Amino acid sequence: MPSSTSADQGDDLEACLLRFSDLDLKDTSIINPSSSLKAELDVNTKKKYSFAKKKAFALFVKTKEVPAPSYKCKEIWWKCCQQLFTGPTGIHRHVAAQHADEVWHQTASVLKQLAVASSTSKSLTSADKRNPPKECLTRNHDVSAWLPDISCFSPEELISGEGSDEGEVLLYYCYRDLEDPHWICAWQTALCQHLHLTGKVRIATEGINGTVGGSKLATRLYVEVMLSCPLFKDYLCEDDFKTSKGGACCFPELRVGVFEEIVPMGISPNKISYKKPGIHLSPGEFHKEVEKFLSQGNQEQSDTILLDCRNFYESKIGRFQGCLAPDIRKFSYFPSYVDRNLELFREKRVLMYCTGGIRCERGSAYLKAKGVCKEVFQLKGGIHKYLEEFPDGFYKGKLFVFDERYALSYNSDIVSECSYCGAPWDQYKLCSTPQCRQLVLTCPACQGQGLTACCVTCQDKGSRPASSPAQHSFKEECDCTARRPRIPSELSQRAPPPLSPEPRPDVAEDGPCLCERHRQHFPEASQS
Questions:
Q1: Mean pLDDT, range 133-138, rounded to an integer
Q2: Rounded to 5 degrees, what angle do the CA atoms 228, 233, 239 make?
Q3: Is the pLDDT of residue 17 over 60?
Q4: What is the DSSP track for 283-333?
Q5: Catalytic: 354?
Q6: At residue 229, does pLDDT exceed 90?
């Protein structure tokens, strides 16, 4: 068990945690937390305010470290936003100018952590200290006490194998009530930085949802820490972590934050709780149910609906045979989709699925709460776990993922087409217009003809030089999104919608967002 660190040992704590002597952290104007947050802090914690700012800034810079070329001996360089920095001054100025929002979130987490640690230590009795409850056991420790010992590994061992061929990406979630998500945020940030992991972790009072990438050694250590943590060890098992080939290169950076929901359905967890989901079916049980459904002669007259809970650009390149794939752009539209098409589900058995299972947890709870379905089932572990067991089963095509890989392939089926010529094609690319964030399916032949934008409007924009660099900093709506209905109406159960250029997701709904080159604010979502 890690040794405790009293919140009153302020000076020692600071000396222990902030050991980045090579960084110039004298600039105290980098972060400016709001006065409302300052007001929440007690006098003792306010004294640590300057320390918290410096620590947050240093931790963020630390995540950008990359090994310098061998001829530079022991030097460290930094890489951020596709830029390489060879000296601390350059990276410090870049972070201060471009990543103030991320540093502010980290500062808030550190301050909250210190405030909670201080108040908790005062309230614990001597008996409590001998037998602390699980929640206090963690909250009353500094995050560094809950990091794995990596002294037996060299930095090269932790970093090597981060590439897509040798590294690994973890996808997981855990629903359980958390009293102090801000402490979890600070701990997860430190843990991922400690193991050189990138990705996104989303935390709320209802649980945690993460997707992280790094070397196989780093991801193994991360899983071991999560399974041994008192907060999660009774709720998580090794099978809850879905793995795939990848690495730190699959994500532009690490982002950890506290939100109201760990998957953004747009409805407060107090109204629709994860505690009332549908019936979980194992991949084997789900496979049998789909087989039974597909064996029926007239599926439209069946009492069963096979429902894809993902977004349309996900189901476009891969889906279960015979499914109903809503033509929605983000999961927060799903409740409205159910409301608008409620009669479609009346007296039906609904088989729901998504990428890793998390969207089905609350999606099924919402559908159940409507009281119109016979039964609501969900695929445990999502498509990820199903394809591990049935790579040549009833799921055809690729599995869309919210990172730089775009998709995972388990079979050779191609279920989508090139947006321009109609040839079989399922490899997404970003629209070639910098201001656009759409995904487009365009085959090599069409790319060779310069057809690399998502629509005529973007193709025209791409052929003209931008009037100013600032133009590239903002997303602009194009014809693709403007003409798409926000909430589609289903007259009858049908196949997925006809092919059209695919809007790029604004937020990562099964993990980190796809490309951060134009985003300076904290992203919204991470789903499984």
A1: 48
A2: 100
A3: no
A4: HHHHHHHHHHHHHSS-GGGSSEEEEE-S-HHHHHHEEETT-B----SSGGG
A5: yes
A6: yes
* Nearest alpha-carbon partner for 390 in 410, 406, 407: 410
Amino acid identity of 97?
A
* Spatial separation of the C-alpha atoms in residues 190 and 60, rounded to whole Å: 10
**455 DSSP assignment:** S
CA dist 125 and 397 (Å) reads: 58
pTM for this prediction: 0.69
Mean pLDDT of the chain: 79
- Token pair for residue 495? 């196949």
pLDDT, one tens digit per residue, over 35-62 is: 444 444 555 555 566 777 877 888 888 7
d(CA 409, CA 401): 11
Q: Are 330 and 310 in contact (CB under 8 A)?
A: no
Report the distance separating Cα 269 and Cα 202, nearest Å: 15
* DSSP SS3 for 254: strand
The tokens for 254 are 């690490």
Q: Give the helix ranges, DSSP H, for 195-282.
A: 216-228
Query: Using CA atoms in the order 67, 162, 233, 116, what is the torsion angle rounded to 10 degrees?
Result: 40
Residue 78, beta-bridge partner list: 65, 85
Tokens of 390: 């049935």
Which residue is catalytic, options 136, 354, 436, 478? 354
- Residues facing residue 187 across a β-bridge: none
List, in order of start, the domains of the chain with CATH numbers: 75-110 (no CATH), 151-258 (3.30.70.100), 279-416 (3.40.250.10), 417-460 (no CATH)
Tokens of 161: 């194998």
Amino acid residing at 411: N
Measured distance CA(254)–CA(512) in Å, rounded: 9
Percent of the chain topping pLDDT 70: 72
